User: Fold these one by one.
Assistant:
Number 1:
Amino acid sequence: MYQLLNDLSIVEVSSFVASPTAGLYCAQMGAEVIRVDHVAGGLDYDRFMLTEEGRSLSWENLNRAKKSVALDLRSGEGRELCAQLAGQTGQCITNLPERSFLGHAAMQAHRPDNRTDMISVRIMGWHDGRQAMDFTVNAASGYPLMGGPEDWDPDTAPPVNQILPAWDFITGAYCAFALMAALRHRDATGEGSELRVPLGDVAIGTVANSGMMAEMLYRGGDRERLGNAIWGAFGRDFRSKDGVRFMVAALTAKQWAGLVEAFNLGEAIGSLEKELGVDFSAGDEPRFTHRHRLFDLFQNVASGLKYAKLEKRMAAAGTTFEKYRTAHEAAQDPQLVGDNPLFGPSPANPSGFGYPAPRSFANIPEREAGDPAPAPYLGQHSEEVLAERLGLGSGSIGDLIDRGIVRTSDKNNR
Amino acid sequence: MYQLLNDLSIVEVSSFVASPTAGLYCAQMGAEVIRVDHVAGGLDYDRFMLTEEGRSLSWENLNRAKKSVALDLRSGEGRELCAQLAGQTGQCITNLPERSFLGHAAMQAHRPDNRTDMISVRIMGWHDGRQAMDFTVNAASGYPLMGGPEDWDPDTAPPVNQILPAWDFITGAYCAFALMAALRHRDATGEGSELRVPLGDVAIGTVANSGMMAEMLYRGGDRERLGNAIWGAFGRDFRSKDGVRFMVAALTAKQWAGLVEAFNLGEAIGSLEKELGVDFSAGDEPRFTHRHRLFDLFQNVASGLKYAKLEKRMAAAGTTFEKYRTAHEAAQDPQLVGDNPLFGPSPANPSGFGYPAPRSFANIPEREAGDPAPAPYLGQHSEEVLAERLGLGSGSIGDLIDRGIVRTSDKNNR
């Protein structure tokens, strides 16, 4: 972990993917991130996949490098401790509703010296309070009805859901940014901020930011189904003689020239240009417009060559391409994982299972990257955090534990 | 635009989606973001869709609320001006290679008073320098080979590319966060940072963070194809009697209870529980394991009811659901756009076309949101920025314009 944020403590009261991701990115940059959960674990504590011993591989990756405090969040006393922790710390990421025990004002009330400088980042469903999750906002976005093979009948084609919970991950990264922006503003002015980030707004807002909303309104209808082709440029999947599937993209003049060279198609494309009266090196437009003619030429060459040969030629010509991997293949790929400095040695994960652990996406050549840290056991830091943050003595903490308001590490009782 | 970052200026030398997005998020929070492009426009200046007059709807959305400086970036003089602008400003987002005129050291060399506090965020392809773009890193991630209908033969099923360039958008948001983290560190220590964020690392790192990499290694193979079902929980698309497709999800006990109530399936599910010897309210596991039996029950009810009726019942029962929209339907949906405070009135876009414009994803109830600003014309702020940032007089700027090193607004010559 880099130590860019080592002066920062954040309380995270969260579950599922988006809010834990926001905390994860901060933790991987050196922040102290204290995840507070219900004593039995949050709603995501048993998220698939589980090991035979019942440890969630999802949870232990999304909560890497954090501390864990376990409180009885169904009791008034546990809830009060949680709000106190957030308020005393001063910055909180949560996906609890505003109308819960963790509303902004409740945290604000616990700021020391009556300061009004609390910063909260709250992930919501839809802006109007309706529930949502990644798959439901995605249904509204328009993307699932654009996916799938090009030859599907538009009138009967089913939606194709994304497997990647992309809206969760965009929202998580955005919330980490929004928290930092609010901290910067507080450093300059002393003012706190209450930030609300609806998952649904990230989705429909991205539809707008990408230009797709303007496009649909401008054309007055939907875009044609493109299958695996890239919209407005040259790119698609191809298949080699030996059945290897790979993606190819050419968005710039240089990429296009390299691709034509790798496939040795200079002459054939010259003829096609003459036939159609276009210049394919002039930009995206002719390559996209006549993509089916071009796809045929490229697939024809691919069908005659083994992937190893094609790969060599594409690499030599500076083509932008990539072989499709299954997820299991990707996990074992030396280029992606084994030889990639993004990954460090496996720390002692709660599951006891060892595997490559990622550092922060950002690497900083001049700084020490450090080794990845494991996720905590649930409640592992309850005593430490309550003592440090709230100044509770060992007697008070012992009493809270005895009464079930606080729980300590579940290392041996899972 | 909120004014959380109104003390911050950022130079952005970028193209396509990821790097412009990082600048966009900062601009929507009030930062001055100066996008510097080649005089003819960056590689993305003509990205689809184009209006009849040749204005890119993609570009004008991804570059909203920024300033534009146009320099001849093929000339030594233009490149020097660009590096000077970045260095004098102190923070830069770029997707140019490190071995270009905009390497970190080149910007650092222009810091005032020989300060060594430059912050650069550089978006790369793969960590090892290989070229990549959203669709190619996605091919490597494993997701495209998991997508598509459940009944496809795993041995012959084609990959299904995501239409959403999710890796670009995650990378953009992450880079905005990374920039803020580095600024915070500089505020505390005076030290600069050189951050490199490979698009490929965001992809394979997300595969790891999500727990999917650990899952595949733990199971020693690939996950079964799920079609539109949610992994490890209850959720899928259904179709009403009148042909409306909608997504339903139940991840919590409350969501499950609401869903069963909305579909009036208490009795049938009770019988199924007895038959299978399971308790579906106990958690994700039984609901996921027996999903096909459950899907049949729910689809059977859906097939007998019109969507309007189903929707009413699901809303009343607090179910998490959403109707699929096409992108054109989404763009015109009052709930998503028209009545959503995320969107403001259309500013005067370079295209001349008017449509709803998004604010920042984060809303801050106590602050003034302001109206969305338009993207600039290419070169619109060349003179202003060169005068303010580099202290150039009108004579020097006039000379640079005369010699084609600097270009002013392309409002009337596009």
Number 2:
Amino acid sequence: MNDKTKLIPQFVDSTKVFSGRVFEVTVEFDDGTIALVRQYRHPTVKYMMELPAGGLDDRERPEEAAARELEEELGLVAGKLEKLSEFFVSPGFCAEKMWLYLATDLTETARRPEDDEVIEVVRLPIKRALQMITDGEIEDAKTIIGLMLAAPRIGLSAFEPDYPAA
Amino acid sequence: MNDKTKLIPQFVDSTKVFSGRVFEVTVEFDDGTIALVRQYRHPTVKYMMELPAGGLDDRERPEEAAARELEEELGLVAGKLEKLSEFFVSPGFCAEKMWLYLATDLTETARRPEDDEVIEVVRLPIKRALQMITDGEIEDAKTIIGLMLAAPRIGLSAFEPDYPAA
């Protein structure tokens, strides 16, 4: 058993289809910036820029978990939390399902990160984040969807007609 | 071992991170329609509408596999096949990577479907397909990305500012 296996215990039980439940949040500040999280991902063997996200317990409601994670990890309370979409990440081989929210009307509070989590929060204009999709700097499916679905809600096109650059 | 396990042999080897390579294609006809595939997905236990997609062998180039699959499964030869994006489906737990193409300038040819594949091809306007994302009728991550990234290339916004309906 190698190090990577230890990180994904779900794979050890070969009698089950992997069926995780996950939430993600596009956090939009009043100044038009959004929050991305930069973290090392063992499966892809690199640092990746992603929207804040987290796993759900069996009986947990996605919107409650999303609100709690925002407060603990980003130190933010969202006055408004809207569901933008729910979708399956790769229905051909697993049942992992994702709930996507847009958080706005934010108030800052104290962060309470868990000990084992090393994440770096990066705040940047959503236009810049959309450009990072075009440029291949954002390459996480849930983050691409979360940014593209949030953009029109905050007065932007997901992409200009000339996307991507030749 | 249950039926589902037999369908996803990758899960049997617990010492590896799942690392499939997959291509998908947004097929755009001259009349503004695109092709979706309707098929039963065991992991999600339902029929789903998705863009045409398929797995890659270790040494296979994604664009070659995409062109071959278009011809075999849809009976189409693409005069133009452009890469729109590449991304990871769920980097938190697996290394599955996806290559997305836009196929245009299509010529019809004879289909050569493999015996074990039961797929239904549905042709519809891309505007209707985008509406199906809003309405939750399309809930496959790669298909959401494939339609949203293709839309601006063929003169449409991915979404109107009022997406999704309240």
